Amino acid sequence: MTVRDISFGSKVGLSILSDKWYMLVLQFLTEESKPFMAVRNAIRGISTFNLLIILSKLESMKLLSSEDYEYQLTSDGVKAQALISQIEQFGNQELASLSDDF
Hints:
The chain has 102 residues and is mainly alpha-helical. 64% of the residues lie in helices and 10% in strands.
């Protein structure tokens, strides 16, 4: 079997998980509601307008839900957060093994 490209679903998943702002929002939020200003104060370096766009996109992907400018992870968002944690652990292991080589 010859493989030339990854699946479309894999491409979409990787594009979400490789976006800095998606990752930061998904890492910060929990299943408990957090007001927008708590999110805004925790995630620095992005304009309020762009943060609202990121939150809206994550909501449209059903990774978070909102009500009256309070945001929380959905069950799919919790799964995405777990993937982010696993990726971080893998990256940390690779960094440690690289430092062992020197």
